[in-house]
Design a protein that fits this description.
Layout lengths: L5 E5 L5 E5 L3 H33 L4 H25 L5 H6 L1 E5 L7 H9 L1 H5 L5 H9 L6 H6 L1 E5 L20 H4 L9 H13 L5 H15 L12 H11 L6
Antiparallel strand pairs: 1-2, 3-4
């Protein structure tokens, strides 16, 4: 039985994107992994402080103050920095296969990550994230208080339904004009072409798991209308080729 909670959001390409929400198990593993890293960093800072204190002979007030600031940064800045700069993924979330996204599946920015993590202390109350656990179990979208305030979701990165996962690419694929010369794309409508171009224009701003899901879904929908197109190619190669072919006279 499928017990995963899912959220369906509409995208500008006209594809309904189904996000699989992360449950308590994967979120706990991510938090545990991140906590181990944080504790390790704090211990390393303490050892460095002890070495410096010994070298200067006695306790130094400025070293103690610097240590307190660094510990605060590790405890409260760790998740903020990784989520804002790491596409919603801390090392723990990356290991657990989950990430933080906006309500429409979009990447989160610094302000959103700041709001989400500013309430982490409240979610921790009275101990061991009790408030967060209750919130995740009782909200429709598995959100802790910080998620509700920031308008974020924690989702799984993997989507099923495809025989294989296309390779990850970081830049647009260049399709040679002579390759698409034999493609028959006359059945593709103006609305479908607009959806393709909408996706191609914003794909680099999408999280990888959403990007490949949308590209694969678009190709699957267009496949019955295409002839001469290598549908086993990377889905973004197909979409770029269709957009290029539709620019030919008579297409």
């Amino acid at each position: 039985m499928d017990v995963d909670r899912r959220v369906t959001v509409a995208t500008p390409e006209g594809v309904d994107l189904e996000l699989v929400l992360a449950g308590l198990g994967s979120r706990f593993l991510a938090r545990l992994f991140d906590t181990v890293i944080q504790v390790g960093a704090i211990i390393a800072l303490a050892l460095a402080l002890a070495a410096l204190t010994g070298s200067v002979g006695g306790t130094s007030g400025w070293l103690a103050a610097a240590y307190a600031v660094l510990v605060f940064g590790v405890l409260f800045g760790y998740d903020l920095v990784f989520e804002a700069l790491g596409s919603g993924r801390s090392p723990g979330k990356r290991a657990a296969g989950i990430r933080v996204v906006g309500a429409q599946g979009e990447p989160i920015g610094f302000l959103t990550a700041a709001i989400r993590n500013a309430l982490r202390l409240f979610d921790f109350l009275p101990a061991f994230y009790f408030v967060a656990i209750v919130a995740v179990l009782t909200t429709d979208r598995n959100q802790r208080v910080g998620d509700v305030a920031a308008g974020t979701l924690v989702v799984r990165e993997k989507f099923g339904g495809y025989a294989r996962t296309p390779p990850r690419i970081e830049a647009p694929i260049t399709v040679p004009l002579e390759t698409v010369a034999v493609w028959d794309v006359t059945a593709i409508s103006a609305t479908e072409l607009a959806a393709i171009r909408q996706f191609l224009a914003r794909r680099l701003d999408l999280p990888w798991h959403i990007r490949i899901h949308l590209a694969s879904d678009l190709v699957a929908r267009l496949a019955p209308k295409l002839a001469g197109v290598p549908l086993d190619a990377h889905p973004e190669f197909v979409l770029e080729g269709v957009a290029l072919a539709k620019g030919r006279p008579g297409s």
